[in-house]
Write a structure and sequence with these properties.
Elements: H1 3-11, H2 13-20, E1 36-39, E2 42-46, H3 59-72, H4 86-99, E3 103-107, H5 110-121, E4 126-131, H6 136-146, E5 154-158, H7 163-172, E6 177-183, E7 185-186, E8 191-192, H8 195-203, E9 208-213, H9 228-232, E10 240-244, E11 254-258, H10 260-269, H11 271-274, H12 281-319, E12 333-334, H13 338-350, E13 353-354, E14 357-358, E15 369-370, H14 380-396
Parallel strand pairs: 2-13, 4-5, 4-6, 6-9, 9-10
Antiparallel strand pairs: 1-2, 3-11, 7-8, 10-11, 12-15, 14-15
The structure holds pyridoxal-5'-phosphate.
Length: 412
């Protein structure tokens, strides 16, 4: 056996154990798309999806993708440098106008948009200043930039959402310029950035700028769903925003928003943009159709999401569930013990409701939880069913009440 196989076997130990005990929760194969699907032939309502406005399966969205397949097929055979279509260009122009920025660039994924933007903009005169709960795309962009030979930026972290910690870290940095990386909504905890307070600290520092990943705020924050900038009236105060098509916009793809020169610079520098194939046109067409809907009915769609989210929050808090830091439609059900999260997940799934467990090392020990996202696409009946089942299994596995589970009997 090579060291590669040795390493893989050793690294898979925990996973194999969970699979043997039949509590391995990931990579369950859906047999159709959407929030209502089947797994192994059994109907399942998915509460771990990021399809926040429930538009991914809208007939008009599907139709637009089908028409685009007929005209452009799926692949374009190269990167955007030599595989840009009128559909890409039109969508970029419309997105820039809708979000209220001068220019937009569409990447193939949101992950690539963030990695490429950080790598293009940060250099050895820059300190990258990260919230301690930053998404993997921010961490990876930061580590990739820092590894650039002879031109790597400094890296510093501040305590999650703490303006005081941000101020302290900015004061201690060793490089002249600072790029502060924030998220509109933090996806594991469902809490919004304390954006006013953090911006105040950033704006007091002449050489600091904020870059915001608003992947989870797009379509959910602000009356029309334009995100954290719209919600708090921050136009002109955040120069660069990154978002994605993989949540509200029904597909996959990254969005970079900024002034014309910054976006053009990143367009010609970002390796994750230049060296990866362009976004398939059927996906562009889906996003473009959802943008039509946001332009025409954004306020109603977002209001419906908020109604459903308030309904679920009330159901869960009435039962006594701990929703951690959440103040949005993303409501982690805190189990605070791995087995409680796994057992509750398995029982819920058997009963037709999927909430994926998030366990160590994705979160700290003691912060294990079920991922619960309410979307506009869930019906009140879906929500009632989920709350009722959570009540039953939350009691059975002591998620409610907080007692420890009995230790498992020792193996024979
Ligand atoms: C905060 C945040 N940023 C970026 C991404 C990446 O987006 P994409 O799925 O388009 O790569 C995600 C997706 O999980 C995310 O949650």
């Amino acid at each position: 056996m090579s060291w590669i196989q040795d390493k893989s076997r050793a690294g898979l130990e925990r996973i194999r154990e969970a699979q043997e005990k039949q509590v391995y929760p990931y990579f369950r194969a859906f047999e159709s798309g959407g929030l209502h699907t089947t797994i192994d032939g059994k109907p399942v309502v998915n509460f771990s999806s990021n399809d926040y406005l429930g538009l991914t399966t809208h007939p008009k969205v599907k139709e637009a993708s089908i028409e685009a397949v007929k005209k452009f097929s799926c692949g374009l055979g190269s990167s955007r440098v030599q595989a840009t279509t009128t559909a890409h260009v039109e969508l970029e122009e419309r997105l820039a106008a809708w979000f209220g920025f001068e220019k937009c660039l569409v990447f193939t994924t949101g992950y690539q948009a963030m990695v490429g933007t950080i790598m293009a903009l940060a250099d050895r005169d820059t300190t990258l200043v990260l919230d301690s709960l930053s998404h993997a795309c921010i961490l990876d962009g930061t580590f990739a930039a820092a590894g650039t030979p002879r031109n790597g930026p400094e890296i510093r972290f501040f305590n999650h959402n703490s303006p005081r910690a941000l101020k302290r870290v900015l004061g201690k940095r060793e490089r002249e310029k600072a790029m502060i990386l924030l998220e509109g909504i933090y996806s594991l905890d469902g809490d919004e950035a304390r954006i006013h307070d953090l911006l105040e600290v950033a704006e007091a520092d002449e050489k600091a700028v904020v870059v915001c990943d608003d992947a989870h705020g797009t379509g959910t924050l602000g009356k029309g769903g334009r995100g954290i900038i719209e919600k708090y009236g921050l136009e002109g105060r955040i120069p660069v925003v990154i978002s994605t098509f993989s949540k509200t916009f029904g597909g996959i793809g990254g969005i970079l928003l900024g002034d014309a020169e910054t976006v053009d610079f990143v367009k010609h520098q970002a390796r994750s943009f230049l060296f990866s194939a362009s976004l398939p046109v059927p996906v562009v067409a889906a996003a473009s159709t959802i943008l039509d809907m946001l332009e025409d009915h954004g306020e109603e769609l977002v209001a419906e999401l908020h109604d459903k989210s308030a309904y679920m929050r009330k159901g869960l808090t009435d039962l006594g569930f701990d929703l951690g830091l959440s103040d949005t439609h993303i409501m982690p059900v805190m189990c605070r013990e791995e087995r409680k999260a796994l057992f509750t997940h398995v029982a819920m799934l058997e009963s037709g409701v999927m909430m994926v467990p998030i366990t160590y090392p994705a979160v700290k020990r003691g912060e294990e939880r079920l991922r619960l996202n309410v979307t506009r696409g869930h019906s009140k009946e879906d929500i009632d069913q989920a709350v009722e089942l959570l009540g039953v299994y939350g009691n059975a596995f002591f998620v409610l009440g907080g007692e420890e589970l009995e230790p498992l009997p020792a193996a024979e």
